[in-house]
Fold each of these.
Amino acid sequence: MVFMNIATTNSDPEQSHARYATCNRTVAGILWLAAATLTYLISLWLLKHYADWSPGTRVAIAMAPLLPGILYLRTLLKSFWQMDELQRRIQIEGLGLALVGTLVVMTSLNIFTAEGIRLVNYPQGLGIGGVYLTMFILWSIGVSISTFRYR
Amino acid sequence: MRNQLRELRATREWSQNDLADKVRVSRQTINALETGKYDPSLPLAFKIARLFKLPIEEVFSDK
C-alpha cells in the first residue's frame, strides 16, 4: 500500500525529506505487520499448548497481537494521508473492490455450503485467515486495475 | 475536462517529474492529468494555475 520512490534526481531538500519519510514509513509498516503476524502465531501456539493458564493470562495473550496490529494500522493511515489525490483514489478503488468482492465471495460460499455444495474443504468455512487473504488478493487486483486505468 | 498542461510544461522545458515536484504530487498524477484520464480537484487545479501564473480557465476548460 505504501509507495517507495527513493530514486530521484531532485535536489529539493523538502522533497528529499518527504521521500525519506515515505521510505521510513514503508519499513515501519513492514516491521509492524511482521510483528503482528509473529505475535498472532505465538499467541495461537501458547493458547493451544497452555490451556491450563488462568483466564486473565489467556485473554492477555489472545489480545497481544492487537498492539502491533494497531501500530501497523497507524502507519498505514499515515501513509494514506501522505498520498496525493490520485494515489488516494487508486487506494480507495482498491479497497472498495476488496470490501465488496470479499462480501460477494463469502456470501456465495455460505449459500453454496447451505445448499450442501462444499467448495472449500474446511468444516468451519474459510475462517478469518481466508477473509484476510481474499481481501488482500482483491485489493491487489483493484489497485492494479486502477493504476493501469490512470497510467 | 481538457487542459493545456503538456503545452505549458513544454514551453518552460519542465519534465513531468519537475512539474510533479513543484505541485507536490506524483509523476503518475501529472501524466494522468495530461492524458485526460484524471480530473484534478479544485485545490490542485488552482495550485497548477498559480504555478503557471495563469487564470484557472486558461489551464483547464470543459470543452
Amino acid sequence: MTTVPMMHAMIVAAILLGLGLTGLLVRRNIMFTLLSIEIMLNGAGLAFIAAAAHWKQADGQVMYLFIITMAAVEVAVGLALVLQMYHHLRTLDLDAASSMKG
Amino acid sequence: MTLEQIRALLPLIILVGAAVAIMLGLAVRRNHAFTVAVAVGSLAAAILSLALGPTVATPITPLLRLDGFSVFFSGLILAASLFVAVLSHGYWNRRRTVISEEFYILLLLAAAGSVTLTMAVHFASFFLGLEILSGSLYAMIAYERDRQAAVEAGIKYLVLAGGSSAVLLFGMALVYARTGTLDMAAAAAKLAGALDVLTLAGVAMILVGIGFKLALAPFHLWAADVYEGAPAPTAAYAATVSKGAIFALLVRLAAAMDIQSNPPFQATLAAAAVITMFAGNLLALRQSNLKRLLAYSSIAHMGYLLVAFLAAGTLGRTAVGFYLAAYIITTLGVFAVMIVLSGTERDADRLEDYIGLSRAHPLLAAVFAGMLLSLAGLPLTAGFVGKFYLLAAGVGAHLWVLVAALVISSTISLFYYLRFIAAAYAQPAAPPALPAAVAMPRLARLAIAVLVILLLWLGVYPAAVIRAIQEAVAIGR
Amino acid sequence: MAGFVALVAGRALSKRLVAWIGVGSVAASMVVTLLVAAGYFAHRPPNGVYSQTLWTWIRIGDFAPVIGLHLDALSLVMIVVVTVVAFLIHLFSSTHMENEEGYGRFFAYMNLFVSSMLILVLADNLLLLYLGWEGVGLCSYLLIGFWYRIPANGHAAMKAFIITRVGDAAMAVGLFLIFWSLGTLDISQISQRAPQQWPAGCGLAVAAAALLLGGAVGKSAQLPLQTWLPDAMAGPSPVSALIHAATMVTAGVYLIARMNALFALAPVVQGVIVVIGAATMLLAAFSALAQHDIKRVLAYSTISQIGYMFMALGIGAWGAAILHFASHAFFKALLFLAAGVVIQRLGDEHDMFRMGGLRKQLPLVFWTFLAGALSLSAALPILTAGSYSKDTILTLLHAVPGGKTALAAGLLGVIVTSIYTFRMVFLTFFGPAKMQAERTNRLPESIPLVLLALVAAFGGVAGLAGQNANWPGLVQFVQGGSSVAPAAGEAAISHVALGAIAASWLGLAIAAALYLRRRPAPAGETESALHRLLAAGWGFDALYDRLFVRPWLWIARVNRSDIVDSFYEAIGQATVALHGMMSGSQTGRTRQYATGVALGTILFIALMVLLRFWHS
C-alpha cells in the first residue's frame, strides 16, 4: 500500500482549517457557524492523524479521539444554546445576538 | 500506578468524585445548601490533599506532573473556586427562579480542568484540561438561560472559543508533525535551535490559543460581552480561576520551550503585551458597567503579567506568581461586593448601583474602595507589592519599553477605578436603583473578610508568601 | 530617640482610629496632634544633631531593603514644622469646620494625612518614602473632593491625583533605576554608593536624578505639572492650608533635599532645577496677579514660593530651601486660615473684588493677615520669617557663580510677589465695605491665627538673634558642612537684602497705587483700571502703565487660561478619543470578533516568521 506523504495530508488539513475559518467569518446562520467550527476541528484532527502516521505512533490518533469528544461537547452545548437563542430572538442570525457592546 | 501517584492525583479525584456525587444526589433530592456544602467541602478537601500530598515532584503518567509549581497554582485556583462557590450560595438563593444546584457540578468540573492545566506537561493533558474548563464555562456563562444576555454571551464564547481551540490544536499538530512527540519538554528539546517556518507557525498558533483564553489583544474582543452577560459568579470565575490556570500553563510551557529567549516569540509577545495594556485600559476608561470594566481591567492586568512573564528567570516567575495571587484576591473582592449587592432581578453592575454605597453599607464601600485601589496598585495593598514586583522584574530584564507602557497605562487606569470609588462615596441623588438593604449571608461576610485580610496581608507583610512562591517556581523547572 | 518618634507616629495612628470611630470628636484629634507636637518638643533636647536608628517594620522579599525610620536634622525640622502647623490647623478646624457635614470624615482624612506625611519624612528608604508619598497623595485627593456633592470638586480632586501621578510614575521608574544599578533603596546607602559608583554627570546619575525630579515637580506643583494646585483649592480652607501650602506640596523639596548626594552628581539636573524654579516662580507670580479668587491667589503664591525653594535646591543650598520651607509653612498656613475666616464670614465669598473694608470689621484677621502678607512679601527688613529665609536664598544665589540671572529673576519675583500680596490686602481689607461680615470671634480660630502670626512676623528676628548669639543657624543645622556655606555670603547679605527690601517696597507702592486709591470694578477690570489710571493723569501712573501694567495684563491674560493646563486637557481628550475608537471595535457581533481573532492569528504568525528571517 502506498502511503500519502505527510506534507500532502497537512496541506489538506490546512485547507480544511481555512475553509472552516472562512465559513465562520462569512456565514450568518448559527447552524453553519457551528458546522464551520466542526470543519476547523476536523482539519486539526486530520493534521494529527497525518503526523501520527508519519511517526508511526498512536498518540495522534488518541488526540483525534479527544478532539471528536470535545467537538461533541461543543455541539451538545451549542445546540442547546441555539434553541435558547431561537426562543429569545426568533431567528438563527448570529449577528442578531449583539445586544451587548461598547 | 503507585500509591504515591494516587496521592498526588487526589485533588482531581476528589473534585471529579464530588461532581459525580452531586449529580447522583440531585436525582434523589434537591437541596441547595447541602449541594454548596458538598462543593465547598470537596474543594477544601482538595486543598488539604494538596497540602498533605507528596513533597517531591511526582510525575503521574506522562501527562501530568505534581511539583511545587503545580501545588502553588492548584492551591490558588482551588481557593479561588472555593470563594466563588461560597459567594454563589447567596447569589443563587436570591434568584429563586433559577434551578441552582447544577452550577456547582460545573464549577467543580471547571476547577478539575484548571488543576489539570497547572499539572499538564503534555499537549494531550493541556488540551483536555483546557476543554474541560471551557466546556464547563460555556454552560456556566449561559446558566441563566431565561436571560437573553446570558445566552448571547454563551454563544459568543462558544463560537469564538471553539474556533480558537481549533487553531490551538492545529498548532499542536504542526509541532507534533515536526517533533514526533506530544510531551512538551521533549518536543522543546527537539525543536531547540532549529525552528523552521512550519513549527514557528505551530508555536504561534498555540500562543494564539492561549492568548485568546487570556484575552490578550488582539484576541480580547469577547471578554467584555461575555462578562456582562454571564452571571456575576461565573464572571468572577472566568476572570480569576480560568485566567490563573492558563497563565500557569503558559509559564510552564515557556519554561520548557524557552520562549522568552527566542527573539521572534519575545518580540511578538512584547508587542502583544503593549497593545493589551493600552487596549484594556483605554477601553475601560469611560465604562460605566462594572462587569465590562472588570473585563477590560483584567485584559490590562494580563498585559501587565506578560511583562513579568517576558522578564523570565526566577524573579520573573516569582513576580508572575505573586501578581496572579494578588490579582485573584483583588478581583474576587470586587466581584464579591458585586455579588452581595446583586438583587433578585439583575446584577449590580451599573455605576448607578454604587452611588451612595457608603451610606447604605459603609463597610462594604470601604472594601470596594480598597479592592479597586489595589487593582490600581496603591501602596499597602497587595496590588502595589505585585506591581512593584512586575516593575522590578521588567527593569531587571531591561524591558524598558514594556516597563514604560506599564507605568503609563496604569496611570490611565487610575481614572476609571477612582470613578467607581467616587461614586461609592457620593451622595445618591435619587433612591438607589437596587433595594438598599441586602441581607448579607454570614458565609459571604466571612469570605469578604478573609479576602480583605489577604489583601492587606499581601500588601503589608508579603515576605512569607513571596518566599513560598520563590520555592514553588524554583522547583518548577 | 527615633524609636520614640516611631512610637509617636504609631500612637497617633491608633488614637486616630479611635477618634474616627468616636465620630471624629474634636477633642481626641486635637489631643493626639498636641501629643505628637508636645511629646516631640519634650524629647528634643536629648536628641543630638544626628540621630538615626533602624526599626524593622516590613521586609519585601529578599531584595528589598529593611524598612525603618530615620531621624536626622533634616527630618527633625520637617516633623517639627509638620506637627506644629498640623496641630494649629487642627485646632483652627475644630470650630471652622463645625457646621460642615462629615466632620468626622474630615478629621479622619486629616489625621491619615499627617501620619502619611510623617512616614514620608521619617522614611529611611525610598520605598517607604514612596508609600508615604502615595499616602499623602491619596489624602489630598480625598480632602479636595471633601465637598463631594459639587461635581467640579470631584473633578478637581481627580485632576490633582492624576497629574501628580504622572510625576509619581516618573519617580517610580527612578526608584527602579536606582535599585537596579545601586542595589539598594536605603537612602543613606544610596548617598554613600552613588558617588562611588557613578562619576559626576554620568548618564545614569542624570537619568535617576531627572526621574526623581519628575516626582518632585509633580508633588510640588512646579512647571510643567503645576496646573492641579489652583484647582485643588476646591477643598476646605484648612485643607489648603495644611496640604496645599504647608506640607504636602513641599514633599518634592524634601525629596530633593533628602537625595542631595544624588543630585550633586547631576549638575545638569541641578541647572534644570534652577530654571524650573525660576520659571515657575515668575509664571505663578504673574498668574497670581490676575486672579479674583483669594484662595487662587494664595495657591499661585504657593507655587511661586516653592519655586524659590527649587532655586535654592538647584544651587545645592538645600538648607536654605528647608529654611524657606519652614517659614513658608507658617506664613502660608496663616494666610490660608485667615482667608478661610474671611471667606466664611462673608458667606462663602471668594471674589476679592466683592470684598473690602474688612479692616474694621475683622480686625484680628486683618492684623494677622497683614503679618503673613509682610512675611510673604519680605517687606520688612530681616524682621519677618519670610524675609529672613528669602533673603538667605537670594544671598546664596548671589554667592554662587553664574547666579546673577537667577538673582535678577528672584528680585523681579519679589516685586511681583509684593504686588499681588498687597493687592490682596488692599482689596480685601481696605476701601469701602461692600459686604457685611458676620462678626464672631471664636477662640480656637483666633489662637492659631495669632500664634502663626507671631512666628511669621518675628521668625526672622529669632533667626537673626540666633546668629548673633553664635548658635548654629537652621541652615547649618540642617545642612551640616556643605559646599555652599552661608557664611560666605555674609558680606553680601546687606546688599542683596537691601535690594530685596527695596524691590518689595516698590511692589507695595505699585499695589497701593493701583488698588488702594482706585478700586477697579470686578467686571472689566482691564479697561476700567487703565481708563481710570489715565484719566487721573498722574505721570507715574502712565509710566507704570507703559512699563508694567500692559505687559503684566498681557501675561495675566495669557495665563488666565493656563496654557499648560490646556495641554493636559488635550491629552485627556486624546485619551478619551482613543477610548471612543477602541470602544467602536466592541460591536457585539460575534463574526466581527472572530475576524479580529483570525486577523490576530495571521498577524502573529506573519510577525514571527518575519522576525525569524530578519534575525537569521
